[in-house]
Amino acid sequence: MKKTFLTALFALAVLAGVQSQHVEFEEYDLDNGLHVILHEDKTSPVVITSVMYHVGAKNETPGRSGFAHFFEHLLFEGTENIDRGKWFEIVSSNGGTNNANTTDDRTYYYEIFPSNSVEVGLWMESERMLHPVINQIGVDTQNEVVKEEKRLRVDNQPYGNVLKAVKENLFKNHPYRWTTIGEMEDLDAATLEEFQAFNKKFYIPNNAVLVVAGDIDKKQVKKMIKDYFGPIPSGPAVVQPNIKEDPITQQINAKFYDPNIQLPMVVHAYRTPSMKERDAYVLDMISTILSDGKSSRLYKKLVDQDKIAMEVAALNFSQEDYGSYITLALPLNNTPLETITREMDEEIVKLQTELISEREYEKLQNIYKNNFVTSNATVEGIANSLANYYTFYGDTSLINKELEIYKNITREEIREVAKKYLNPNQRLRLEYLPKTDQ
């Protein structure tokens, strides 16, 4: 294949970036089961201390949704040695920032400090693990915070409940059937003792990984970790849910009504395998082919060429137990949703029956090389990746090997995986409608 000089230069630059991104790390376990990962990077005088707990919305029980996300907030309330309301003050006074986030599968807390404050971060995370104060004042305060967040980001946001509508129809048995933020009536009904029991069960060293990354002296940091985290007692082993869903054998048709929208949306959702399966990587690539940018297939077909949609997207929503492959579109010029479905299906059938071109395949590989470089371009990104690879794959070294998986995916695999999962009889077809149409 003929390549221009600029194309060759670009390819060399990408390759150099990939080669320079090899991440060195050291990992070990404390006696209490806490897994520790250290990554030394002297290029900037900053350090990140982070803890990922293997607990998310899937660890909740029916009628008590939203607990994991609630704890994302609650565990900033204070500890036996950090007064209520002082957490953020301590962080900022030491020149740092912090945050946390929750998914269906895990909860992640982190602080970014100047490197001379690494001990502050370790002390704070050990306090969160060992000495959290969970009382009624904190529960009531954070209950209002979470309610306001749900109103702002979900209930009053146009199309804010799309994921809720998909999950409750795509999953019938698995806890993925409810949203991470949960339902407010579940939190209102929970007792203080239930919150305390949830903390005792899941926020323990043997259900967590500690990552310290950045400008560190590993010998000193190891001693700090032993001093602060070593005395924390382990808890009973956490058994993750093992709940299976029956295969979808005929299209599920559903409707959801949203008072915050004026235009309808059509959503197709296919239940797919765990993110740990090779097929999940292939589905990532299929999403890129279909809707990554204005040159992608769905955008060119529905938006540019036929002008029947104003927005279109394809997303491989990978999770630990199952994935959800989602395509959606907003119609233009009163185009019937059935027409949108038909046109989107035609593009998927092309993927199922024809190999993508060599040119498209080369472009796809360059995108994933760039994504790899970007994800590991900062110490924060590296810390998050290290925690994820250990927690979900049990293989921290994937931070240096995962790109090879994408590089080795063939055009034939893309065709076969599309054929295996993206069929009308294996999906949910959801019409997301203005409430006035009900």
Helix content: 40-55%
CATH class of the largest domain: Alpha Beta
Order of helices and strands: HEEEHHEEHHHHHEHEEHHEEHHHHHE
Structural class: alpha+beta
CATH fold topology of the largest domain? Cytochrome Bc1 Complex, Chain A, domain 1
Summarize it:
The chain has 438 residues and is an alpha+beta fold. Helices cover 45% and strands 18% of the residues. It folds into two domains: 23-229, 2-Layer Sandwich (Cytochrome Bc1 Complex, Chain A, domain 1), CATH 3.30.830; 252-437, Cytochrome Bc1 Complex, Chain A, domain 1.
Write up this protein.
Keywords: Hydrolase, Metalloprotease, Protease, Signal, Zinc. Belongs to the peptidase M16 family. Residues 36-180 form the Peptidase M16 N-terminal domain. Pfam families: Peptidase_M16 (PF00675), Peptidase_M16_C (PF05193). It contains 16 helices and eleven strands. With 438 residues, the chain is an alpha+beta fold. The chain folds into two domains: 23-229, 2-Layer Sandwich (Cytochrome Bc1 Complex, Chain A, domain 1); 252-437, 2-Layer Sandwich (Cytochrome Bc1 Complex, Chain A, domain 1), CATH 3.30.830. A hairpin with a 5-residue loop joins strand 9 (309-317) and strand 10 (323-331). The longest helix has 20 residues, at 136-155. It is globular and about 65 Å long.
